[in-house]
Amino acid sequence: MRKVIGIGETVLDIIFKNGQPISAVPGGSSFNATISLGRSGVNTTFIGEAGNDRIGEYVVSFLRDNGVNADSVNVFAESKSPISLAFLDEKNNADYIFYKDHPHDQLDFIYPDVQRDDIVLFGSFFAVNPVIRPQVAAFLEYAHSRGAILYYDVNYRSSHRHEIMKITPNLIENLEYADIVRGSIEDFEILYRLKEAERVYNAEISFYCKKFICTCGDTPTELRAENKLAKQYPVMDTEVVSTIGAGDNFNAGFIYGLLKGGVTRDDIDRGLSEEQWDKAIGYGQMFSAESCKDIFNYVSTEFGNKMKSLNV
After folding, report:
1. C-alpha angle 86/87/89, rounded to 5°?
2. DSSP assignment, residue 118?
3. Exposed, middle or buried, 237 (CB in 10 Å: 0-12/13-18/19+)?
4. CA distance 309 to 307
5. Does the pTM of the predicted model rise above 0.90?
6. Fewer CB atoms inside 10 A, N or C side of the chain?
């Protein structure tokens, strides 16, 4: 069975509405996607760190309880779990404050088995963090050499705006490793001061990676790919309770769609057909819309059980 391997940070997301905390759930960009994929019956592994505290114990058990292999999660003796405060506005979009001592990040893990056509998901500040860059880059190189498909979610928050110059070489290297790049228009406003997907693709992405998805909140998702393929996908109409997991679950759904469509390394190298893009992006939007229906960071277990029945 093909595998999905997510690598990234773990946090405890404390969610506020009208100034009051309303929920606290495990989170992290790749983490959220792997939980949704695990719930949907996909063979999934997570690589990352967890604090040596009650939150860390909760994070590891949560992965396993949702069908995700957590054998590559590090727990260091003196580490504490990072915290994210997410403040929902009147439209239920989130503004974040992060509490983590990044200079003390560590990463030490045994590589999981990676085979051709497996999918590796990586992104956010974790993927460009200079402190752990040697370990992250070595794993990406290993996965690439094994014939895995590398999916990069840029996911660059404004809290790291002051570090853009420092992380730019790592960002460019990630774009070179990536087979598919996804980001939100907010990411690219922060990184490049650009607000149009076409300009982002032509000026900053296409030289390194030809397959590009730009999500734009409640406006259509933009696709750019080989052979001058340019397409928009209207966002599904849904009642939004929280957008915290929207992008992460788009990633989960898109990857689910690649697996469901039988997209292989050879397909990636040849270039995907419009039909293959349509199917994968459709699942991405479906998972994203589902995650917005509640204050949690992932699709519901009920939705996951429906996806399991489709036999990826």
Report:
1. 140
2. -
3. exposed
4. 5
5. yes
6. N
Calpha distance 184→288 (Å, rounded) = 13
Q: How far apart are CA 85 and CA 93, in angstroms?
A: 13
Helices (H) and strands (E) in the chain, counts: 10, 13
The token duo for 72 is 């590559």
Strand partners, 98: 84
Contacts of 115 (CB under 8 A, 6+ apart): 2, 3, 146, 147, 148
Separation between Cα atoms, residue 143 and residue 136, nearest integer Å: 11
Among residues 184, 172, 157, the alpha carbon closest in space to that of 82 is found at: 157
Average pLDDT over residues 57-63: 95
Task: Give dist(CA 230, CA 13) in Å, integer.
Answer: 36
What is the model's pLDDT at position 42?
97
